[in-house]
């Protein structure tokens, strides 16, 4: 997708996070306290990213996961912004910014994937249409 395609598809808030690397305000996102069963996908391209099974409440104010669904679906990059070294997570298919990964998460992985709600969409487990 071109920059124009992303601008047409995404809301200004989604575009700011996904394409410009912005961060939503903590506790503002619709998936922060969201615990339905299902799959979180990239809001820009639909690639599957996180299972609800790996979601936990980190208290950070952002949706948090202990692992990604498939390591090939996420690209990791060093991020040195704000005088910090963080690991940035991007969608491997459309290169949208998702959030960051930290090593202070719970067992079993010890990882904390700190992801912006606006970078995600959600497919409920029982979303199959009847018939
Ligand atoms: Fe994507």
Features:
131 residues; mainly beta; Metal Binding Protein, Guanine Nucleotide Exchange Factor, Chain A; six-stranded antiparallel β-sheet; three-stranded antiparallel β-sheet; 2 helices; globular; binds fe (iii) ion
- Main β-sheet, spatial strand arrangement: 3-4-8-7-6-5
CATH superfamily: Peptide methionine sulfoxide reductase
Can you name the CATH architecture? Beta Complex
How large is the count of helical segments? 2
When the domains are counted, the total is: 1
Which percent range describes the beta-strand content? 25-35%
* Class of secondary structure makeup: mainly beta
Shape: globular
The small-molecule ligands in this entry are: fe (iii) ion
Distance between the termini: 33 Å
Mean pLDDT: 95
Computed CA radius of gyration, to the nearest angstrom: 14 Å
The profile of the biggest β sheet is: 6 strands, antiparallel
**The CATH C-level class name:** Mainly Beta
Number of strands: 9
Helix content: 10-25%
Order of helices and strands: HHEEEEEEEEE
CATH fold node name: Metal Binding Protein, Guanine Nucleotide Exchange Factor, Chain A
Indicate the low-confidence ranges by residue numbers.
none
Description:
- This protein has one domain: Peptide methionine sulfoxide reductase (Metal Binding Protein, Guanine Nucleotide Exchange Factor, Chain A), CATH 2.170.150.20.
- The chain has helices at residues 3-9, 12-18; strands spanning 38-42, 48-51, 55-56, 64-65, 74-79, 86-91, 97-102, 112-115, 120-124.
- It is mainly beta and 131 residues long.
- The longest helix is centred in the first third of the chain and has 7 residues, at 3-9.
- The chain binds fe (iii) ion.
- Residues 42, 44-45, 47, 91, 93-94, 96 line the site of fe (iii) ion (FE).
């Amino acid at each position: 997708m071109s920059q124009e395609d992303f601008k047409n598809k995404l809301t200004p808030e989604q575009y700011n996070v996904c394409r410009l690397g912005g961060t939503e305000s903590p506790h503002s996102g619709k998936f922060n306290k969201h615990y339905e069963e299902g799959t979180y996908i990239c809001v820009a391209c639909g690639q599957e990213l996180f299972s609800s099974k790996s979601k936990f409440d980190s208290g950070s104010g952002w949706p948090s996961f202990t692992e990604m669904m498939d390591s090939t679906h996420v690209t990791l990059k060093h991020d040195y912004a704000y005088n910090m070294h963080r690991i940035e997570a991007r969608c491997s298919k459309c290169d949208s910014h998702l959030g960051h990964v930290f090593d202070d998460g719970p067992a079993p992985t010890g990882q904390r994937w700190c992801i912006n709600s606006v970078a995600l969409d959600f497919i409920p487990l029982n979303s199959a249409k009847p018939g």
